[in-house]
Amino acid sequence: MTAEATNMPAKARPSLYAIDPRTKRRNAAEKRFRLYGVAAVGFGLLALVVLLSSVLGSGLGAFRQSVLTMQVPLDAAVLDKEGTRDPAAIAKVTTIAYGKLLQDALTAELTEKALLPAGMKPKDVGGMISKEAPAQLRNLVLANPDLIGTTVSFDALANGRIDGFFKGRVTMESAKLDSNVSPEQLELAQAMRDAGLLALKFNPGFIFAPDASELRPEAAGLGVAILGSAYMMLIVLVLSLPIGVAASIYLEEFAPKNRFTDLIEVNIANLAAVPSIVFGILGLAAFINFGGLPQSSSVVGGLVLTLMTLPRIIIPARAALKSVPPSIKDAALGVGASKTQTIFHHVLPLAMPGILTGAIIGLAQALGETAPLLLIGMVAFVRDYPAAPPEGFFDPASAIPVQIYSWTQRADPAFTERASGAIIVLLVFLLVMNSLAVVLRRKFERRW
Amino acid sequence: RDQIQSAGSSTVLPYATIVAEAFGENFSFPTPVVESGGSGAGRKKLCEGVGENTIDIANSSSRIKQSDIDTCKANGVNEIMEVRFGYDGIVFASDINGKEFAFTPADIYGAIGANVAKDGKVVANTAKTWADVKADFPAQDILMFIPGTKHGTREVFDTKVIEAGCKATGAYDLFLAAAEGDDKAKEKAAVAQCNTLRTDGTSVDIDGDYTETLSRIDANKNAIGVFGLSFYQNNTDKLRVATMDGVMPSVETIAKGEYPVSRPLYFYVKKAHIGVVPGLQEYIDFFVSDDMAGPNGPLAAYGLVPDPELAKTQEMVKNDVAMGPLN
Amino acid sequence: MNDMRLTERAVETKDIKIAAHDVQVYYGASHAIKDVHIDILDKTVTAFIGPSGCGKSTFLRCLNRMNDTIDICRVEGEILLDGEDIYDKKVDPVQLRARVGMVFQKPNPFPKSIYDNVAYGPKIHGLVKNKAELDAVVESSLRKAALWNEVKDRLDAPGTGLSGGQQQRLCIARAVATSPEVLLMDEPCSALDPIATAQVEELIDELRENFSVVIVTHSMQQAARVSQRTAFFHLGNLVEYGETGQIFTNPKDPRTESYITGRIG
Amino acid sequence: MNDMRLTERAVETKDIKIAAHDVQVYYGASHAIKDVHIDILDKTVTAFIGPSGCGKSTFLRCLNRMNDTIDICRVEGEILLDGEDIYDKKVDPVQLRARVGMVFQKPNPFPKSIYDNVAYGPKIHGLVKNKAELDAVVESSLRKAALWNEVKDRLDAPGTGLSGGQQQRLCIARAVATSPEVLLMDEPCSALDPIATAQVEELIDELRENFSVVIVTHSMQQAARVSQRTAFFHLGNLVEYGETGQIFTNPKDPRTESYITGRIG
Amino acid sequence: MSIGLLSLIVIALAAAGFLIGRQLALSKAGGDIRRLHSLPGYYGQTVFLFTAVPALLLMLLWLLVQPLLIETRVTSMISAADIPDGSSANLVMTDVRRVAEGIDLILARGQLGETDIAAMRADLADVRSRLAEVGVAVGTNVKPGVFEAAKAYRDLSHGGHLALTVAVLALALAGFGYALSRIRPEFRARNVSEGFVRVLLIAASLVAILTTVGIVLSLVFETIHFFRLYPASKFFLSTTWNPKFGGGSDLGIWPLIWGTLYISVIALVVAVPVGIFAAIFLAEYASKKVRAMTKPLLEVLAGIPTIVYGLFALITVGPVLRDWFAQPLGLGTSSSSVMTAGLVMGIMLIPFVSSLSDDIINAVPQSLRDGSYGLGATQSETVRQVILPAALPGIVGAILLAASRAIGETMIVVLGAGAAAKMSLNPFEAMTTVTVKIVSQLTGDTEFASPETLVSFALGLTLFVFTLGLNILALVIVRKYREQYE
Ligand SMILES: Nc1ncnc2c1ncn2[C@@H]1O[C@H](COP(=O)(O)OP(=O)(O)OP(=O)(O)O)[C@@H](O)[C@H]1O
Ligand SMILES: Nc1ncnc2c1ncn2[C@@H]1O[C@H](COP(=O)(O)OP(=O)(O)OP(=O)(O)O)[C@@H](O)[C@H]1O
Ligand SMILES: [Mg+2]
Ligand SMILES: [Mg+2]
Q1: Are the C-beta atoms of residues B108 and B260 closer than 8 Å to each other?
Q2: In Å, what is the CA distance from A287 to each residue of A279, D135, E35, E213?
Q3: How far apart are alpha carbons A283 and A232 in whole angstroms?
Q4: C53: which of A4, A181, B117, E58 is 20 to 30 A away, CA to CA?
Q5: Is D71 an 8 Å CB contact of chain A?
Q6: Distance from the CA of C175 to the center of ligand 4, in angstroms?
Q7: Does D265 fall in a domain?
Q8: What is the residue-level pLDDT of chain E in tens, covering all 486 positions?
């Protein structure tokens, strides 16, 4: 034994201040390693900044909209020919007639203010007003038939191209080539803006209004989609988190380790790799055709997304449960806690950060998912708001990602801006959803 | 269920939404729900059966197929109404700053057909630039974004452009001569040969939609893309359209039948649901009314080529005439 | 050393609290405990001694079925607590562990406050009616474990922030708080200074009045001081078991003798 | 006990290996080490004794800057190793820790094989040229820690599957394998049986020929047996520091005396 | 009583049961908890569970079965004459339900009484307009048969509903009474309630099994259908993927599998190192503040809709890669490529790896770090040699999850990699994945019963089996590694 002591490599005693070459190398490696970490985080953040700035850059415009303010004489001769003020009769007047009314009103007003350029046809003037405006005016009148015969001050959305002009999307040059707008119209719009008849205003309709058709991008909003997404997320959250955590607790803590549980384990891992659209196929077959639930409804969407999210919650939750040191379990079992108590009192709180991370990521994905909704009829044009829950779960609804998806496919470039705006809304939605989880996660985090 | 539900082609989708929106505004019925998801899926959904949780209308950018009708029958959907409400024009366009092109089908085939006729022989297509195809074209690299095979547009592109071009260049006859079997098999083989396109990256299938094609043209300025007329009309400031056989594509030229590449658009109504789903009859009447689908209606304004025989369709819809067997 | 205390103790006849017959423990293929027969008496302190790695902890963990938590561990044979087989299907290990408490070799406080560490057992077993009683239990347990004075001002501090010896005493307090019938202590004083050790030994002596205590220790002196019976393990075998006095003064097995006489600690 | 060994040792004049001046350690607001001055000699075994929670581990951890890893821990004062301030900005704690090794109070083997546990240090410090040398270092380290015989057949088994005492010896072997100049051992024998303890003490004695060893222990006997100098801590203060013989036979401070005389372990 | 109210009553009863059970247990033990087998709360829980669960289960079952029973009863009442041509009994039932609903509404408005309704005859009264008044639209005039059926439907459902209410309440009360009667101090309440929790946990993990069964079932029939139309040998062996609109397609799966693997591998090559390094940085190096900020920020990457990534790939990354790498290297001129899609997908996957691994790394006990630092290891050595191995099982899980996402992604591939199915080694060529083709073939304009559409199902099923194989492989490898250390 003593002989071996002399075998110890006798070392010279270098100064602590002078770092020896090997340590220098190791420190360099350390620095590099750390740098890789910084670079990795930096890369991620950079990507985030690039993506977000492109989204913000093209999407913020959606929250402001050009609005024309005009005086509209509600001509009784047009709106109520018989003069009976019978709602049924008034309802017979279609939006086409209202459109004409608006066009005439604007032309008259512009003529009066001497803004109308010579040679501009009333049709071109009418073309500057959104096609949504007649419907709004009609609803106004139907709600209050007494207005007929009076002149009302009416805020109408401007046509998407006019709006685009003030947001820089449409220019005089592009208007020359554009078959949907003319430079004269743009000049007129500028003149109107100078005269205070037209203004860029915050646009609540973008958040609250329902989708609109291709002809009126300026009126398209996210109201139905936000409700639909909220309903679905409610279902997903309420179902997938408890079920996912319960399943992972069973698999990690209770299940006997045998072939069958191996099967479940592989199976769950595999479910995570199933393309989301296949869950749509499943949803169509199981919930709509077999279960008889209604098409396009948020309940089916929520259920499908729940199934899709489950494995994505179970896998991280299991990893988190596994990482709790056994000594903690021993300690609890040793004072006579039951297994269930041990898990719920000690293991679960310690595993909570990992579980919440899984939930954050799983729900983020569910919130942004479109493909499975394709097959269950939620990728749709829905204009009526779903009712309040629980009945509303069964009404047709859209979802924010669906709205983004369909807006990016539309021909009018104004929808690109709206799609980016919708992405902003989606991200805000996501941040609101996540922030709670993030706060909770920080509360549970500790080292031992 | 109170609202009408329809599903199907994404080409028909914009028209259907425009009508649905107007319908919802002017009638006391709820706004119909219009799903996209493809003509095939739409027709499949239509044929799933009758009842509340099946759809009422399938939008389709191509005519229904016998197999769909069979499925329908098997599931108890015996009567469907076929409604053709207009035409969709298909145009070729490049970036707004790109060169001007005046195509014929033969040029397109000569550019992206896998095998072309050269001096009476079939040779592999090696053209690199458009100048290789036709001398008076600019020497710009050939790059075409064509609709993917999932799209109905591709069918039209294949028959009206590629096959036409194949025949025009004489390649078809050479293929036919080289093919074996009886006449029918020969023809089939020749057509298949015509439809075989280059895979070296000169022709790129687009499985997405026209916005994707537009973005790709944005990223590849010297590419030529295939678009729907309505899409082009909304983006005239970004795209420079090419003529085909010397004709400029427009609603008028297509309606007159001068511009060769177009296709009819349909929707199919489940007759059993008429009278059951509130507003269904009103909706289809409204859809084909002159206010909507007529030459001055919003659909035409958006780019639909109105059906010259619209009056006939209106009559048919009014009387709920179910479609006969496919011819 | 005051070995005299050995003689003081009258060896009364006591009931058998735990009877182990023919116990075999395997870790996977390795045979860690071989054929152990032992009767642990009620109201008695039993010491397990033996070289490191001989299977003391393993056997101790059998007595309250803590080995159930190790996947690869397999226990054979019969262990009776008050005449009832603890490995019987009908037995609820939870109830068993409430009756047979344990202090582990490595201190393992919960990552919670000191108070919550001690209060946990009484809470889940419903030993207290209200907060005041709980406070009292926590205080008395911490006092018994000789930790009260050091932590009374920081009961809300995390148990993991204590020094090694403090953690060990915290774990003792935690085990004592549930007042088990049998207390298994795996080297409870290994990180304790002599004074704290004396206090814990005092506690053990006190517990003996009502309960059984099984203590694993490497200190022969400690075994001699606190235990009435001693079991000597060697390579997984129970070599010798008997009156502490007899084991230390007159061992029957040569292995015991050589272990005892090599005594140093 | 063979306290005679105390007298055997001639107290030579030795270099100061570590000099600590005015060291203060705070955990958040609590003042754990107060004003400690101590000179630790080269080629000497220094024992730290004192009641549990008095700050022995804390001070020990200052000596190789292990306290850096505890967020709330703050160290003030000056600690010189061979005359160089280890808390200097220029000092790389990594290099420091390679020279000042440590065995922790709670055995903490890596979740790796036994072999890899021991080979870890030599590998990262590049102390060996090839596998054969590494094998030799691993074997000799395990032998020194008196673990070789028990584990030689299962060097590939995970270190976490060992018994408590085996884990402790594994950690000792791991620390020895890097052959540090100063070895800090926090209760290295707490979970060891007397024979293993003797072997570790022998190892310490052997190490003393070339290096310094600082050992925290609760066993007065052990301190007396292995150390040449002893420091007594109390409530964060270094109460007394001197020749081991003097401290045990003739303590100057009444606190030391009362601690020593209350000796039991 | 509405279903909601009924469930509320049951739950309220159960809640009361909880309190009473608790109290009862306490009082039976003479107020001394120590004499109880379990904590008093557990006794309360058993009462709660026995009251609520059977009753609610019965209600659920009843609600599922009752409509079926009533439907068959009422359907049998509808004569063939009431079913219009081309319609079906199913559709008529829709009308029946709507009319029944309308009758309820009319009654609710108090316009008519029950007796009026019973006396009302569809052929006499204008039922349609009456219904329209209460806002129920019916497509055509209501036929007498339908109206009678509707009345019967109403009666039956009301009767059924009443019976349901009675049965559910009775069961709840019975459970309530039974559970209370069982309360004795020695009653093992905790075991009962924990057993129940265990059943819940098992049920939760069975959801995953059921999902799989559902997926396989929903794919398998159409897949068989597909193989009837298209030879399986060509599907599995051919190396060309070239669907045609009018039939005569080549549908070999290999180019798609190749593309899937290639793109996924590139995505993982980006995401795994970046993710793991980010995780290490966050867990080991970053200050608390930085970590608290950065981690959620990175997680936003997982929440950005994939269409944004797709456009980013198409408009920004694709051209850059083409102009700076592909063209100078002579590797092609395509702006959409495997590389583009893989790179951008990798970015999306970063948080999958980083956040999940960060949690696992953070859970590695501090004592292991101390052990390593104490030996003079640098932080990076500690991380690489001690912490990563200890955290490995969790990290592998995170990577598998990321890989799964990569395989299942659509939008980024469509826009980034194009739609061309090719088998090439050149990473700067356009390729595509199985998932993309599933989506595009399924949502195309081709007829549904054609192989071109049905191939989606075969692709889905094949991919399912394929990933199953990969997962089993991963499990085996992980097990092998883990055996060494556990
Ligand atoms: N991480 C920590 N956070 C807060 N306080 C701590 C921490 N570690 C130790 N302390 C406190 O500092 C004091 C000194 O602890 P230290 O671990 O140095 O004691 P010790 O002398 O080693 O005791 P023992 O012999 O029990 O191991 C104790 O009061 C302890 O509670
Ligand atoms: N979890 C385990 N897996 C495999 N082998 C184990 C495990 N725990 C202990 N062993 C082995 O079983 C034997 C007995 O271990 P045990 O922990 O019972 O020893 P001990 O007598 O308590 O020793 P010590 O005094 O060192 O704590 C040892 O050889 C040990 O290596
Ligand atoms: Mg032990
Ligand atoms: Mg200590």
Answers
A1: no
A2: 11, 64, 50, 14
A3: 14
A4: A4
A5: no
A6: 21
A7: no
A8: 677 888 899 999 999 989 998 888 888 877 777 777 888 888 888 899 889 888 888 888 888 788 778 878 887 777 777 766 656 666 677 777 777 877 777 777 777 777 777 777 766 667 767 776 666 666 566 777 778 888 888 888 888 888 888 999 999 999 889 888 888 888 888 888 888 888 889 988 888 889 999 999 989 988 999 999 889 898 998 888 888 876 778 888 999 999 999 999 999 999 999 999 999 999 999 988 898 889 889 989 988 888 889 888 888 888 888 888 888 888 877 788 899 999 999 999 999 999 989 988 988 888 888 899 888 888 898 998 889 888 888 888 889 889 988 998 888 888 888 878 888 888 888 889 999 999 888 888 888 888 888 899 999 999 999 999 988 888 888 777 765 444
For ligand 1, whether the C-beta of C111 sits within 6 Å is: no
Q: What is the CATH number of the domain that holds D143?
A: 3.40.50.300
**Closest residue by Cα to residue C101 from C88, C83, C120:** C120
Tokens describing residue C66:
């803590």
Q: Kindly give the pairing relationship between strand B5-8 and strand B33-35.
A: parallel
CB contact under 8 A, E215 and A279: yes
CB contact under 8 A, D110 and E376: no
What are the Cα distances from residue D138, in Å, to A9, C92, D196, D203? 14, 45, 18, 15
Cα distance between residue D59 and residue D55, in whole Å:
6
Using CB atoms, which chains have 3+ pairs under 8 A with D?
A, C, E
| Residue D20 resides in a domain | yes
- Lookup: tokens for E296: 């959620």
User: For the CA atoms of A290, A291, A293, A295, what is the dihedral angle to 10 degrees?
Assistant: -20
Half-sphere exposure of A350 (CA within 13 A, CB side): 25
Q: Residue A279: enclosing H or E segment and its boundaries? A: helix A276-283
Show the domains of chain E with their CATH numbers: 3-208 (no CATH), 241-484 (1.10.3720.10)
Cβ pair A197, A258 in contact under 8 A = no
The alpha-helical segments, DSSP class H, found in E335-450 are: 338-362, 366-374, 379-382, 388-408, 411-417, 434-442
**Dihedral class, residue A93 (left if φ above 0, else alpha if ψ from -120 to 50, else beta):** beta
**How far is it, in rounded angstroms, from Cα C22 to Cα C36?**
5
- Test C111 with A336 for CB contact under 8 angstroms: no
AA identity, residue B195: N
Q: Measuring from atom 5 of ligand 2, which residue has the nearest CA?
A: D161
- Using a CB–CB cutoff of 8 Å, tell me whether E306 touches chain B: no
Candidates A1, A5, A17; nearest CB to D210 = A5
C123, C134 Cβ separation under 8 angstroms: yes
pLDDT per position as a tens digit, A243-293 = 999 999 999 888 888 888 888 888 888 998 899 889 999 998 888 888 778
How many angstroms is it from D144 CA to the middle of ligand 4? Answer: 24
Give the range of the structural domain holding residue D176, as residue numbers without chain letter: 2-260
Interface size between D and E, measured as CB pairs under 8 A = 84
Q: Specify if C265 maps to a domain.
A: no
- Hey, what domains does chain A have and what are their CATH numbers? 62-203 (no CATH), 223-444 (1.10.3720.10)
Q: Identity (one letter) of the amino acid at A145?
A: P
Say which residue the tokens 């405990």 belong to. Answer: C33
Both tokens of residue E84?
Answer: 């219009």
CA distance E472 to chain D (A): 25
| DSSP state string for B292-327 | HHSTTSHHHHHT-EE-TTHHHHHHHHHTTPPP----
In the reported structure, the alpha carbon of residue E364 is separated from the centroid of ligand 4 by a whole-number distance in angstroms of 22
Residue C19 lies in a domain: yes
- Provide the number of structural domains found in chain D: 1
- Dist. CA D208–CA D230, nearest whole Å: 15
DSSP state of C251: -
How far is the C-alpha of B227 from the C-alpha of C200, rounded, in Å?
88
